[in-house]
Design a protein that fits this description.
CATH architecture of the largest domain: 3-Layer(aba) Sandwich
CATH topology of the largest domain: Rossmann fold
Oligomer: single chain
Structural class: alpha/beta
Number of helices: 12
Helix content: 25-40%
Shape: globular
Strand content: 25-35%
Largest sheet: 10 strands, mixed
Number of strands: 16
Length: 386
Amino acid sequence: MLRKLFERALARRVALRLLRLKKHRPIEFKFRFENGLAKLPRNADTELAGNPGLYSLRFYAGYKWSPLQPSLRANYKQLGHALLGAIDESSSSATVVRHISSVQGADIRNAVGGWISGWLGTSPQDFADNIQHVEIETNDGWTLPAWMQSSGSDSWAIHVHGRGASQAETARNFAQFSDLGFTNLAISYRNDGSALKNGKAQRGALGLGTSEWVDLEAAVAFAKSCGAGPIVVFAWSYGAAVSLQMAKHSAFARDINGFIFDSPVISWRETTSLQASLVGAPQHWVSLAEAFLKDAKLASSIGLNAPIDFAHFEVSAISNYLETPTLLLHSRDDGYIPIEPCRDLADALPDTVTLVEFEGARHCKLYNFDIDTYQKAIADFVKKLT
């Protein structure tokens, strides 16, 4: 009896880690800033270089919380964004020293710590001067803030960000799609911290795609109401799971001419298995969490409107309904999401799914690592749709 209660509590905790966004992203490393350079601990992300090799350093500024305490405490309201350039020759085997070209949002001189990102900005004006804010209304009362860049064309690209991200994650692709003649629309979705319910931003339980797909459906309906013709959905990481659920459930799926997925979640079972192994957790915990989420009563107890069955996210299930041409872009050493489900899906649907693999790019940094290969794959795919 005690064992059963313990396992249920453990399953609940693992499930909540999947479904609940942390209020603040954890700091991955500490660093020093001096004379326009950031001195970072060497790891697979901090040493990334490529073409163009542009990355960002996201960081929290700090403050002294006590006159007797010389160290800084993180001020989570002071989230900064620094564009990183080339690796400096003063780097060593233990550290990576990178040039910083610009800083926004917080004082990097008071930084407590941060993480490496592929984001190249945090607001619309960082990408273009003709991106405007719009709002999309869902049928069940959600308001979804979005970024929109009109091209005057009836071709639309709808961009769906990943877990814990925002529209800013997707905007590095705006320029290419604008050049290809697309209107860009980067959306938010329920419980991502940006979408509004009754006028307030909500951070409830994510649905691993099972609840958010209706928000993508609303975005497609919005685009159609604005005169959209051909539509491409470009989704990142978690956004791919959202898009696949939309493809399965929505009548609007027929209005999607193509899917492009960057570093996508295809299988939640394999994704959670990998992430468990990365933190040294037993694989048995994944099975416990899966069984917990599949139980309607237990799922309801953590805020879900319906249970989640991981089997619906397996390649064997997806291959039964995915008919839309799909391009998968994934790094073999993603470090967060396994590439094997992408390979399996491409093998299962060779006439529908195309996979382009990268080496050394890491999660959601393919654009930053090898922009030429990345944009050529996108351009070739889009041309086949027209």
